[in-house]
Amino acid sequence: MGAVRYDVPEPDAFTRPYWEAAAQGRLLIRRCGRCGRAHHYPREFCPHCWSEDVAWEETSGRATLYTWSTVHRNDLPPFGDRTPYTAAVVDLAEGPRMMTEVVECPEGELTAAMPLRVTFRDGSPVFRPDP
Ligand SMILES: [Zn+2]
């Protein structure tokens, strides 16, 4: 058994479809069949109207940058080896706001509302500039 890592998913029965799709390079969200709104992170109930009529939906993978912070120190492995990195909140094209990381972009080139596209690192979604 290797070193403990804090960046890899621990799927359960409910989130397994999400992580299996991510392993195939697809980002899923949940959309409510009653009010029509999408949400993320995945929940079994719609957080807007509490309906249980919620289903998985594949996203376009497009997003815009809402806010970000450069992380210079993180003691949880393997993040310490990655510093500095860009922790970010992005607005998915489908509506939900998502916590993630922006990669392949120098800190000085980050701008609010810049277009991003999902990419996957070790099966987890991160975002890079979408020129
Ligand atoms: Zn709803």
Automatic annotation (TrEMBL):
Domain ChsH2 rubredoxin-like zinc ribbon residue range list: 19-54
Residue stretches spanning the membrane: none
Descriptive protein name: Nucleic acid-binding protein
SUPFAM superfamilies documented for this protein: Nucleic acid-binding proteins
Every ChsH2 C-terminal OB-fold domain range: 56-121
InterPro entries: ChsH2_C, ChsH2_Znr, NA-bd_OB-fold, Thioester_dehydratase-like
